[in-house]
Protein: Methyltransferase type 11
Organism: Haloterrigena turkmenica
Amino acid sequence: MTEQATIQEAWTEIAPGYDEYVTPSNMALAEAALQRARLRSGMRMLDVAAGSGGLSIPAARAGAQVLATDISPAMVERLEARAREEGLTNLGARVMDGQALDLEDDTFDVAASQFGVMLFPDLPRGLSEMTRVTKPGGRVVLVTMGPPSEVEFLGFFLGAVKTAVPEFTGLPTDPPPLPFQVSDPEILREELADAGLTDIRVETANHRLEFESGTQMWDWVTASNPIGAEMVADLTAEQKAAAQKALDNKLRERSGGSGPAVLNNSVNIGIGTK
């Protein structure tokens, strides 16, 4: 199986959970990123590695003419279903590899990716493709995870699993997993510059997540990207149950025993002009 096919299959497998849990949780952050990018009604916007619409749906709601692309047909189907449900006729979607966009040069006012291109094995190629299809004077936007130490959901999750399964090794740190390859704002700035962009701004923002239970948070993390699911794939049913109970306890402690627990997570919003 080719690398592309492997990636496509991994995302297709988690598409139902991603659409149910993750996409809705990303929309408020997307709205903030699009405001920073000065997206306006009538602009043409490309969303690369769009998932099921966490960025595309808010952009279409704002009146942009949006094309969403993703490598997974299942994600595209779910995105199209969301667009139909909201009557967003200004949002189209296509199955496409973000590292080889089947699109003309100089087409879009804004090319954006939220928690998408940051996962590419060849991130510079993905950024180069986004830049290529952006009109001169248009903007390229990348929303990425911040440093792992400033991502609370990750610390909560790994800590709970380690409480239940002391031998659990967690995530490798050298090199960091793909979601954190541009978690340092300066590295993100360098990548945007290397893609040929100017007037670069990298701002830090807070991605606020709310969780009602350990089970809900477990479902969210394991559906958030294939790495989340793979990380706990070898645990037994008993170990998974124990980890979810430990998560329950940690979330209850954070919330004070009433209402959802709020976790704060650092993200980078990088914007450059072609």
Remarks:
- The chain has nine helices and seven strands.
- Strands lie at 44-48, 65-70, 91-95, 108-114, 134-145, 198-211, 261-273.
- Residues 3-36 form the longest helix (34 residues).
- The chain has a mean pLDDT of 95.
